[in-house]
Design goal:
The protein has 304 residues and is mostly helical. It has one domain (2-300). Helix content is 65%, strand content 6%. It contains eight helices and two strands. The protein has helices at 2-56, 58-62, 66-106, 127-130, 158-190, 199-210, 250-255, 258-300, and strands at residues 222-230, 238-246. It has a two-stranded antiparallel ribbon. Helix 1 packs antiparallel against helix 8 (258-300) and helix 5 runs antiparallel to helix 6. It is elongated and about 95 Å long. The chain starts with a helix and ends with a helix. Keywords: Coiled coil. Residues 260-287 form a coiled coil. Residues 95-126 are annotated as: Disordered.
Length: 304
């Protein structure tokens, strides 16, 4: 029984090694992906702003002076550049946050995590675990990390890796949503988007649209709504007003950029590996608990 528990512990250690290697692959893939995403976001923000100003509200844009148009365009470019920098910073921020969380969890765990300095699978790994080390197809350069020292990443358990990735994806989505809202606010302040539409209503509509898997009809990354607003002549009457605003969607940004889309596909493949690791790790943890319980039963049992 002791030998069985020891073997399970070896399998768990091998899975933790595989998780750390996968973390290194995800780290490098996300680094390339976020660089591409930042560039794509800037392009799509400018295109969406162009559509709002020239096709959505052409008369409002023409009513601006030349200097006002230039100022608006420069502000949009600056907002896109800032969002690009924020996207690149998310990866480093997620590393620091995860390291702090893992340190806290490891402070209650007497078993030290193994250090890994190569991308070779453990020699004592089972065939199921070895299959996880197979290369992931993708179109980004340098698909698998080589000679990466990942001992400082402090991620060994699949659930920790899943949490890190979830936090990173949430940060990406939040950046796009904030950029959309800030740009719409700028367009409304400039007089492009009708001022009679409350900013809170526009924000709520944007968030509601992001929470659904709706398919955009017409230009991508735009919010196209019919909303009931008060009439300017009679406050008791209302009228339907078509609202066109910016709503940057990650799926549409990726779809418009083949290289970025390839990066997302590679992330999906790595995420599938992570899920496999998670299932296998949970299974081994269960086996260890059962084996330990059986050993404890035998240790305390005696015949009357």
């Amino acid at each position: 029984m002791a030998r069985a528990i020891e073997r399970i512990e070896q399998d768990l250690a091998a899975l933790e090694d595989a998780t750390a290697l996968l973390r290194a692959e995800l780290d490098k893939t996300y680094s390339q992906y976020l660089q591409l995403l930042g560039q794509a976001v800037r392009r799509q923000l400018i295109l969406a702003s162009y559509q709002v100003c020239t096709h959505g509200y052409p008369q409002a844009f023409l009513s601006l002076s030349f200097s006002q148009r230039q100022k608006l365009q420069q502000s949009i470019q600056q907002m896109g550049k800032k969002a690009q920098e924020q996207l690149l910073s998310h990866l480093e921020a997620s590393k620091k946050a995860t390291q702090e969380e893992v340190r806290d969890s490891n402070s209650n765990d007497p078993a030290p995590q193994p250090e890994i300095t190569s991308n070779e699978p453990p020699q004592d790994a089972t065939p199921e675990i070895l299959s996880i080390f197979e290369p992931v197809p993708g179109n980004l350069e340098a698909e698998a990390p080589e000679n990466i020292d990942i001992s400082n990443l402090e991620l060994a358990k699949p659930e920790q890796l899943a949490q890190w990735q979830e936090q990173l994806e949430e940060a990406i989505a939040q950046t796009l949503e904030t950029l959309s809202l800030n740009t719409n606010h700028l367009l409304q302040q400039t007089g492009i988007i009708p001022s009679k539409l409350p900013a809170a209503v526009l924000e709520a509509a944007t968030k509601a649209d992001n929470s659904t898997e709706s398919v955009t009809v017409g230009s991508p990354n735009l919010l196209n709504l019919l909303m009931e607003t008060e009439s300017e002549d009679d406050s008791e009457d209302s009228t339907l007003t078509r609202i066109i605003a910016i709503n940057l969607r990650l799926s549409e940004i990726e779809f418009a950029d083949p290289t970025l889309n390839a990066g997302r596909n590679q992330i999906r493949n790595l995420s599938a590996k992570r899920n496999t690791l998670h299932r296998e790790y949970h299974k081994k943890q269960r086996e260890r608990s059962v084996a330990q319980a059986e050993a404890a039963w035998r240790a305390s049992w005696f015949e009357d």
